[in-house]
Amino acid sequence: MEKHSPETPEQHASCDINRITLTGIIVKSPELRADPYGALIVSVLLSSRSRWQRAAWGTYGQQSYLFTILALGSTAEQLATLQPGTQLVIDGSLDYAYHPSATSVEARWTLAVRAERIGILQLPEQCPVRERP
């Protein structure tokens, strides 16, 4: 009879279908808070752009999207030191949370990206300054 060995985090991450890789720029300073057990939780707002071609005119359009990024543990410590304008790549999963309202019958659902790994692509001081025409 074979023994079942538990999956390592790397094996679990490779077979999990709830995965997202996202690149973007931090647009809001990190917000720090702690959970009831004292662990650090950091959230930032990340702007990411999508580009598409308009079939009718053959021109390109651009749309910006804002994502809330949540990080815990050592990833949170790394994210807490970054400033707006930093360009990142985030590897993580989607986190969908339900927040019941105490004052009304409406409930609020929120969607965030739970960051598991963060890579810094470009720091704000390294970004080229564009002159306006």
Provide structural commentary.
The N and C termini lie far apart (74 Å). The chain contains 2 helices and 5 strands; from the N terminus they run H-E-E-E-H-E-E. It has helices at residues 9-15, 73-80, and strands spanning 20-34, 40-54, 59-72, 87-100, 107-122. It has a 5-stranded mixed beta barrel. By secondary structure, the protein is mainly β.
Major sheet details: 5 strands, mixed, barrel
User: What oligomeric state best describes the polypeptide chains here?
Assistant: single chain
Secondary structure category = mainly beta
In the sheet with the most strands, the strands line up as 1-2-3-5-4
Distance between the termini: 74 Å
The total of beta strands comes to 5
- Silhouette: globular
Please mark out the parts with pLDDT under 50 across 5 or more consecutive residues, or reply none: 1-6, 129-133
Write the layout of secondary structure elements.
Elements: H1 9-15, E1 20-34, E2 40-54, E3 59-72, H2 73-80, E4 87-100, E5 107-122
Parallel strand pairs: 3-5
Antiparallel strand pairs: 1-2, 1-4, 2-3, 4-5
Features of this protein?
133 residues; mainly beta; 5-stranded mixed barrel; 2 helices; 5 strands; 11% helix; disordered C terminus
Short description:
This protein is mainly beta. It is 11% helix and 56% strand. The radius of gyration is 19 Å and the shape is globular.
